[in-house]
Amino acid sequence: MADPVTAAVIVGLAVSKFAEGAAGKTAEKLVEQLWGAIASRFQTKPKAAAELAKIEATKGKAPEAEANLVRVLDGELFEDDKFREALEKLVREITTQEPERLQEVLVGVKGRNIKAQGVSAESQSGEAVKQRVASDLEATEDIDLGSISAKQ
After folding, report:
1. By the 8 A CB rule, do 128 and 101 touch?
2. Is pLDDT at 123 greater than 90 in this prediction?
3. End-to-end CA distance of the chain, in Å?
4. Bridge pairing between strands 119-122 and 148-151
5. What pTM value is reported for the model?
């Protein structure tokens, strides 16, 4: 028997739509469907709709709104078996998708001075990999990246 799908798992997957590179292309569409199903369900419930709006506005970085949404969704899952089954089906489809291969190097680094030398990212498996190298860097003074390479 499969593990039960909780409201927290469902909301966590739905919110993953805001995380770049979190899912492959097929799973990305399924996550969009999951988010859409939840948003549609709560569009007439002002408090829940407000929590969804907070999550969207913060690009998925609203833990309190996420926790509130879990509580509301938990009640809906208890009350409506068809809705629960539909969301569980989407969750199972999402979790069985092969994840997109993602390679990140020097991403989101913050500091006063950032210095990196001889950084290399290489994929050798023959499969396409989404690569991010030296992105979203924040320095209050100098950034010296020297030589950086990314190969597939």
Report:
1. yes
2. no
3. 40
4. parallel
5. 0.61
